[in-house]
Write a structure and sequence with these properties.
There is one protein chain. By secondary structure, the chain is of the alpha+beta class. The chain has two domains: 148 residues, Gcn5-related N-acetyltransferase (GNAT) (Aminopeptidase), CATH 3.40.630.30; 117 residues, Gcn5-related N-acetyltransferase (GNAT) (Aminopeptidase, 3-Layer(aba) Sandwich), CATH 3.40.630.30. Helix content is 31%, strand content 31%. It has eight helices and twelve strands. Strands 1-2-3-4-5-12-6-11-10-9-8-7 form a twelve-stranded mixed beta sheet, sandwiched between helices. The two termini are 28 Å apart. The structure holds coenzyme A. Coenzyme A binds next to strand 10, helix 7 and helix 8. Coenzyme A (COA) binds next to strand 10, helix 7 and helix 8.
Length: 307
């Protein structure tokens, strides 16, 4: 009924139709259809290990589903680490339709042909359908991300001084603190100047909302915010917050988050949002203490694919 094309690079026309599908899914789900890393991989194209799987059905000029395979950083692991995301056109999510399952199956076959490795299938707002689809593919429920939210403005104001990030000057010192703070983190740790420059080139990047706090001439921590203006509700994200381990547990994480919330409220936003790994106890405690509550979860289903 449908056919799946595997693309190592999406030409402009394909990219436009896939972007349209992702936008429709994001509207229907009130959630970005792809995670940020996957989205950057898609628009940048061509990275080693990247594959876009486009599902088409006769009679439909547009794709009816899309899956993306990305090869993650090895980070000392003996095998490759792959991530898969699957998106089905909201109009084709009908009972008995197997677009999602078939895309997942094709993605896993591709990974097997590439030598196999550890796999994460990321799903936002997982339900019984995703549990079944993952189980049928031999994947088990794994890591959970909370999406947390709170209303703005926050009653409490930050009492520390922050200044905006200076593009072209602050990258090295910022990377040092970021990579130290996120040493154990699979996605946020191990960033390079290149990873950073890619974010700086995104339309949402705004140095005014990227707040740095210095102590004795050293960068002690930062709060990087991101404004989402797509969809019917503007959201202000606490995108990344971290404190240099040398300054942790002194109330700085709380102050930096308050500074970020203050910035977002000044931008006129009435809702703040963030993602946090459910096992990141210090961060979850910090956010709960600031009035954030869990809006929904994203889950990774994991497994190992043999070559
Ligand atoms: C999360 C982080 C920013 C907290 O910064 P911090 O300056 O150490 O935190 P604070 O001193 O402001 O403490 C804030 C709250 O977190 C709690 N907390 C801090 N470290 C903790 C720890 N290791 N275990 C448990 N709770 C902890 C504090 O008790 C405090 O709660 P309280 O107000 O109820 O006492 C910091 O640990 C960090 O940079 N972690 C690595 C990066 C990261 O994970 N960022 C969040 C990604 S979403």
């Amino acid at each position: 009924m449908h056919e799946i094309d595997v693309k190592r690079h999406l030409a402009d026309q394909d990219l436009a139709t896939v972007a349209e599908l992702l936008a429709q899914a994001a509207d229907a789900d009130a959630h970005p259809a792809l995670g940020e890393h996957a989205w950057l991989d898609l628009v940048q194209g061509g990275r080693q290990g990247f594959a876009g799987l486009v599902a088409r059905e006769p009679g439909h000029p547009h794709p009816v589903g899309y899956a993306q395979v990305s090869l993650g950083p090895h980070r000392g692991s003996p095998s490759s680490s792959w991530s898969i995301e699957v998106v089905v056109d909201p109009h084709h999510r009908t009972p008995g339709n197997t677009i999602g399952e078939d895309l997942l199956h094709a993605a896993l076959a591709l990974i097997r042909d590439e030598g196999g490795g550890h796999v994460h299938l990321w799903v936002n707002q997982p339900g019984p359908y995703h549990d079944r689809m993952a189980a049928a593919a031999g994947l088990s429920p794994g890591r959970v991300l909370y999406q947390m939210r709170r209303e703005l403005p926050a009653e409490e104001k930050a009492t520390i001084h922050t200044r905006p990030f200076r593009p072209g000057q602050d990258e090295e010192r910022w990377l040092e603190v970021n990579n130290r703070a996120f040493q154990q983190h699979p996605e946020q740790g191990g960033w390079t100047v290149e990873t950073m420059k890619l974010r700086e080139a995104q339309p949402w990047f705004d140095p005014e909302g990227f707040l740095l706090h210095e102590r004795d001439g050293r960068l002690a921590g930062f709060c990087w915010t991101k404004v989402h203006s797509t969809g019917d509700q503007a959201l202000g994200e606490i995108y990344v917050v971290a404190v240099d381990p040398g300054f942790s547990n002194q109330g700085l994480g709380r102050q930096l988050t308050l500074a970020g919330l203050g910035y977002l409220a000044n931008r006129g936003l009435s809702q703040a949002m963030l993602y946090v790994d459910a096992t990141n106890v210090p961060a979850v405690k910090l956010y709960v203490g600031l009035g954030f509550t869990v809006n929904h979860i994203d889950r990774a289903y994991t497994g190992d694919v043999r070559p």
